[in-house]
Design a protein that fits this description.
Structural class: alpha/beta
Strand content: 15-25%
CATH topology of the largest domain: Rossmann fold
Largest sheet: 7 strands, mixed
Shape: globular
Mean pLDDT: 94
CATH class of the largest domain: Alpha Beta
Helix content: 25-40%
Length: 514
Amino acid sequence: MTNGADVLCDALLANGVDTWFANPGTSEMHLVAALDRRPEIRCVLGLSEGVVTGAADGYARMARKPAANLLHCGPGLANGLANLHNARRAHTPVVNIIGDHASYHLPYDAPLTSDIESLARPMSQWVGRSSDPQTMAKDVSAACSAAINGPGVASLILPADMAWGEAENIPAEPAGLNLRAPDPERIAAAATALKSGRKVMFVLSGDTLLEEGLCLAAGICAATGARMTAAVSNGRVERGHTLPPIDIIPYPADMALQMLSDIEVMICIGATVPVSFFAYPGKPSTLAPAGCEIIQAGSFGEDLVAVLQLLADAVGATPCSDFAPVELPPEPVPGPLTGEAIAAGLARLLPENAIVCEESITSAREFWNYSKGSARHSLLQLTGGAIGIGIPLATGAAIACPDRKVVCLQADGSGMYTCQGLWTQARERLDVVTIILSNRSYAVLHREMRNVGITEPGPNARRMLDLDEPALDWVNIARGMGMNGKRVDTAEDFTQTLQAALDRPGPYLIEAVI
C-alpha cells in the first residue's frame, strides 16, 4: 500500500529535494519508515533543531536548491526558529516538513498540541497544512514553488494521519522557477542616476554577489565612476583574487555612517536601504545620508543579474575582467594570538575553492578585507543576527559540496548555542575545520555596553557577559562529539595547526585562545 508519506517523499524528489535534515519524533514515524524505502534521499540527523534548520540553510545556499527539514510538532519547530529567521533573511529556499498529531486527535489537546501555523508564519513566506493524502503531491509542489520563487522558507504541516493514510501515488508536477522580470521604470531611473555625474553607490546582495553579478557591477562602476559595496550581511558572496574586490557596509553604525557620508544616490539590488542593527540615542536608524536618493532597482524574486545586465547595456558597460590584484596581508607577527592574526593567517592559507562560514561576530572582522586577495572561495555570513548558525551552516555547506574544504570561523559564545552540530560533522565525516575564537566572553555585548556609555561593567553585568567561570574547554567538547582538536594561543602555533588541519580530510577543531 502506498501512503501519504511515500507520496510526500516522491514529490520532494520530483522537485529536486533529495537531502533531509531531521530531528523526528513520534508523529513522524511513518515518514521515517518511508525514507527507508527511498535510499536516494540522504538523511542527516541533528541533535537539536537549531542544527537541523541551520544546516538546511547552509546546504541550500551552496547547492542552489531547497533542502528539507523534518521537525517534530510545534515545540520542535520552535527550537529551530532562530536559524529559520537567518534563512528567511538570507532568502534561502528551505522546505520545512512539520509533523503534527493526527487530525482527529487535535481536539483532545494532548501535551504536544500547539498552534503550529502561528509559530511557523513569522519565519515562513508560505505556510500550508496537508488535509488529504490524495493532494499530498500538490501540497509538496506548492511548498517547493514558494521556497524557490520567494526565494525563502516554506512550511508544510503534516498531520500523522495524512502520512499513514492510503494515497494514490500520482506524480508530482515539479515547481518551476518563475523570477519576475526587472521593472523598466526603476532600471531607467538607475541608468539616469549613473549618467548624472553624482556620487552613486550600488548596495548589492543575493545573486549580484556571485561571479556574473560582481563582474557586471564592477564593469558598470568602471564605466560610470560609481562605487559598489555589499550589504552588511549576505547569504553568499563569491570572493578571492580572481574576482573584482568589493567592500562591505560595516556592522558598527558609526563606521557605516562615515563610509556612506558622501553618497548622493544609492542603487539597491537584492538589498534594501541599510539600517543600523540597533537604535542608539542621538543616532539615525537609516544609514544613508540625509537627502540621498534611494533607487530600489531590483528585489528578491526578480532576476537580479538581469537588472545589472540591463544597467550595463544602458550605460555602455561590459563585465569587468581586468582589475588591480589585491595583496595578501603580511604574515601574522609571532607572539600571543589575536583575532587579527587569525583573520590574516586564514586569508593567507585558505585553499582554492574553499567555503568559509563566518560567525566570528567581532573577533575576526578583518577577514573580509584580508581575504580579497585570497584563493577563490565562497563566504556564507550570519544574515539575521540570530547567533548559533556557524557550526550548522558549515555542516550543511559541507554536505552540499563534499569536494570543497569548509572552514567555520566561530565565536565561542554563539558556538555553544549549537555545538551539537560537531557531532553531525563527525558522524557524516564532513571535511570541516572549525576555528573557535575563544575570548571567553560575549565580546559584542561588551562593545554594546560601551556604545550606551558604560565603559566598566560591574560585577553583575560581567556575570552576564563573560564565559570564564568556568572557562569552556572546546577541545574536550569536540572530543566528546567524536572529533579531534587542539588548543592554540600563539600566532605561530595557530598557523602551523591550521595548515595541518587544511591538509588532512575530515572534521577538526582548533580552539584559538585570544
